[in-house]
């Protein structure tokens, strides 16, 4: 597979000051098919748009006079150190925006000590991704798992992920079917794209060219709660996180089934349109089953574009948040773009913390925000 010639040249990286700059530049410089696959969401894009809007409707209740000379963004995710309370969400086929794909993502992530979650539909083999991120300091990677209809393949994938040093398994539970992503479907793929990890291939068929749909054909539609003991048995000592929880009731079930974490997510609005933004689900858990927060780690993703968004999620009890599309658009600039995006978000988060009177992440709490506009 070869990328098309870029449609326009890119401005220098140092002129980019926020996630939206990266997005606008990606729209006019990556190939039309890459843009369609990355930016698209299910049907009317309502969940995707609401994801960001939900954050915009939460206001701060800043505390002043707190000696905020600096702010410390370090924390732990599942016990692993990270420089920031956000991680690189798993996104498929990163080789479509940059030939080095997940390998360049790993390099950029290492620069700022960000945890990278590697998709089952990665362009590059896991071993290559992990080794290209290697450096003097230790880097943490997790695996995102799509359970295969051929369970043997899933068992093999987990064994090789463990051998490569991956530290946790994020099982995606909201994409057993592909969402109807019309922009992706309408635009045919020029050349088939293939994942080096799952082996899934996307070429056009009678329905269209939807990479999301075609690369998800191997995913087990029968997956259910009773499969969790099996997943645990093949994951061994790796912690299990369920990605794609959308109700407090399922969050409670996740506790019952003994997983170590959940990602509240609607898959960036790509799976079921009008599914709730993660922020709504977070509030619902607070209202109905707040004890969930004592039993496992809760992460959220979808629409997080600013340091203020990250801080709001943390105030509401999230241990960390996932960033999806912005990292894909930053990868348009290779590893340097990835590091640059992390610095931008970290800097925005530090500013927010200091303005709210918080010195380190042990100081976040719901009293620092006002959710009245989105409280149901
Ligand atoms: C995704 N996402 C995703 N999730 C997952 O569990 N496995 C995957 O392979 C992918 N692939 C993927 C590809 C692309 C192009 C996108 C945009 C997203 C979903 C991802 O992990 C995350 O939930 C959302 O991207 C979060 O929303 P934002 O940050 O993109 O708004």
TrEMBL record:
Main subcellular location: mitochondrion
Top-level taxon of the source organism: Eukaryota
UniProt KW Transferase keyword: no
Catalytic activity: (S)-lactate + 2 Fe(III)-[cytochrome c] = 2 Fe(II)-[cytochrome c] + pyruvate + 2 H(+)
GO molecular function, one term: L-lactate dehydrogenase (cytochrome) activity
Entry GO terms, CC: mitochondrial intermembrane space
Cofactors required: FMN; heme b
Keyword DNA repair: no
Subcellular location: Mitochondrion intermembrane space
EC number: 1.1.2.3
Domain FMN hydroxy acid dehydrogenase, chain residue ranges per copy: 11-374
This protein's UniProt keywords: Flavoprotein, FMN, Heme, Iron, Metal-binding, Mitochondrion, Oxidoreductase
Quaternary structure note: Homotetramer.
Family from the record: In the N-terminal section; belongs to the cytochrome b5 family. In the C-terminal section; belongs to the FMN-dependent alpha-hydroxy acid dehydrogenase family.
Protein name: L-lactate dehydrogenase (cytochrome)
Whole-protein coverage range: 84 to 459 of 478
